[in-house]
Amino acid sequence: MQIDWSTFWLAKEGNAAEECEDALFFRRGSQGDRHAATFAVADGATESMLSRQWANVLVRQFCRRESGWPLIDEEFLEQAHRLWQRWRSSYLRRREAEGRSIRWYEEEGLRAGAFSTLLGLTLIENPRMWVATAVGDSCVFQVRRDCVRAAFPIRDPTEFGNRPPLICSKHSCREALLKEVRHTTGRIRPGDRFYLATDALACWFLQRYNAGEEPWRELDELGNDAEQGRQEAWVSELRRGGLLRNDDVAVFSIAVRST
Amino acid sequence: MPYTAEISRANPSSMIFLIDQSGSMADPFGGEEQKSKADILAMNINHNLQNLVIRCAKAEGVRDYYHVGVIGYGAQVGPAFSGALAGRELVPLSEVANNPARIEERPRKVPDGAGGLVEEKVRFPIWFEPVARGATPMCEALTRASSLVDGWLDEHPDCFPPIVMNITDGEATDHGGDVTKLLDAAESVKQLASSDGNVLLFNAHISAGAPTPIEFPDSEERLPNEYARVLFRMSSLLPPHLRSAAEEEEFSVSPASRGFLFNADQVAIIKFLDIGTRPSSLR
Hints:
Oligomer: heterodimer
Helix content of chain A: 25-40%
Structural class of chain A: alpha+beta
Number of strands of chain A: 12
Number of helices of chain A: 7
């Protein structure tokens, strides 16, 4: 399967780049792998501590899975939580060693855990199909012949709110969380395009599509990380015009050239 | 649409608490409560500030989404912060977070992740101690708040409108019996505005003796006396997002509900402060 892809991310206006709490990751399968490619986006919750780091753990761990059905399931959460515990312990030790003890106002947030959405898309070689799995309001859209064939997990832009379900970094939340996982599948044809986006841009995409436009064309024209200036200008203009909520932005644009 | 401005570090908002520190605040709080009204009020303000700081905290820092002022009124009227913040009128939240007067360590039982509970030490910041001395110069406190907010709005003309929360146990004593002076002082706060809407003034009356509380009324109809009716007229309407917050806390509200509690008990005061400091959008 020949796949082309591009990506960009931007922090919320007013925040520094390193404060962006959206995360993206990608892994291309090796020759003979059943998973041709895996993409993941995650949106760390603003009101939780260390959510940026947790979002990064989630996207990386999701893309590392090389076998099995690519879903947010018990096994995936077990691995992610284990990885998180190791990172968190190391982080706290480093803070103490460097004389930067945990402040009183960090204790509650550390106790409560970090929170993030996660959306994973896997393109499977044989049979030619795609699988998407999600917790929260980061989305994937499949476009075929200038029509949105699938919008997952949200189809209606009015459904975006301030309280999506989130994956918690504490393993004690696991049982309740598994009830929030959603997944879907579909076939892949040559020429199919997929777009993964965190909520602000996903909402913009659906609003433009519902208004009779083809928002994917604007994303396709924007290119990749090397053209950061153009992407920033485009996002800033949308924010100024009130068409895009001021929030972190992360997006993958994926084209299936041949199968 | 008003009351929709984003609250951010580039465009912060402010919160000002006016706390009654008159002599009558030494009386016990309503019903069976053994602590004084001043004890309860200090405890609630400390708790509320703690929650606000935690909500705005990120790793190794607190984001200055808000600047906070606390004006005490009793024997004198002025900033109520002590210690490193003594004399400060409006303080960025990060400085509030880093400068409590003292920190208490208290034991708390928390789940151990294996179905049991384990005791751990939790740190509680204290900014305010209970004070109960003097009369009730509420007009002066409101005038002071108006001046403070006016100065803030000069520097932040597009902010989410500041919220002023007045908590008192009794009638003002500095209006010479003329309630229009009190209403005018309240109006001097409410008529101030940013580009996103008018400044909000909410009032909570706390009472000894556990009479029937009246919470977020939408008319003067059920109010028991002229004093309550004056406080009602002094109070701003609840904007939509705070009406939703009040509904989430299981208060019965309508579009005409004002940010006003009369004969409030301790639970209602905690919720009142929490609702008033609920951010509309910190996403």
